[in-house]
User: What shape does this take?
Amino acid sequence: VQLQASGGGLVQPGGSLRLSCAASGFTLDYYAIGWFRQAPGKEREGLSCINSRDPGIYYADSVKGRFTISRDDAKNTAYLQMNSLKPDDTAVYYCASGNGCYDVMRRPDYWGQGTQVTVSS
Assistant: This one.
């Protein structure tokens, strides 16, 4: 069972990135997927979550209106589209999965490796 986050990089303020979270070893469509980030010296922050069978989607206030979570179960992959990026968005971004967003945002079953996002001019 593995989750692999990718798509991070260096982007200028106001720019966009799309992160991917690819699952292997299990079928993603039964699980909720969440995105988190952790900046140096700060606590891990839950950003967004998408459920598997119902349309429930959660966004933290810090990213609402700028980030969009989605999933393509046929590709066993989830995404986080990040627009209007700010320097404060600089962090390592992680994806995680669990039985539902309530559980994922508190105690995910599986964590992916992180991908670094740096927003700087």
In short: Helices lie at 101-104. The chain has a mean pLDDT of 94. Residues 101-104 form the longest helix (4 residues).
